[in-house]
Amino acid sequence: MKEHDVCEVTCIDSDKTKRVQPLVEKSNIVEVTKLFKALSDETRMKIAYALTLVEELCVCDVANIVGATTATASHHLRHLKSQGLAKYRKEGKLVYYSLDDDHVKQLIHIAFEHQQEVAGRR
User: What is the DSSP string of 41-85?
Assistant: First the structure.
């Protein structure tokens, strides 16, 4: 930690802290944390990103794209679904996955845009 990264004195803005602390405590931090944990896995992020590029993919296509077995891809897709990030539909013997809604797509796009900005500053 660099010396200029922390306050040199304790100075608490009690108006702000009294206003913000209850909002933080009432928020659904645990569920939002689960969402980010689901996306913190490299394979799941690859899958989620691929699903931002096309409307839907079957499990076999996902496996091919991320270089995994069908079983592994299926496991990761089920995890994304259980966290409310993906949904599926079955067509005969094929299962197609897509992102649950536009919010998920936006979240992933924003993360990639942010990373490009950070990389551009280096």
Answer: SHHHHHHHHHHHHSS-EEHHHHHHHHT--HHHHHHHHHHHHHTTS
Note whether residue 1 is domain-resident.
no
Per the structure, the complete domain to which residue 77 belongs is given by: 8-121
The predicted-structure confidence for 52-102, as pLDDT tens digits, reads as follows 999 999 999 999 999 999 999 999 999 999 999 999 999 999 999 999 999
- Cα separation, 17 vs 55, whole angstroms: 43
* Each residue's pLDDT tens digit, 1-20: 566 787 777 878 889 999 99
What is the number of domains present in the chain?
A: 1
Helices 70-82 & 59-66, crossing angle to 10 degrees?
Answer: 110
| Domain-located, residue 44 | yes
- Give the CATH number for residue 115: 1.10.10.10
Answer left, alpha or beta for residue 91, where phi above 0 means left and psi between -120 and 50 means alpha: beta
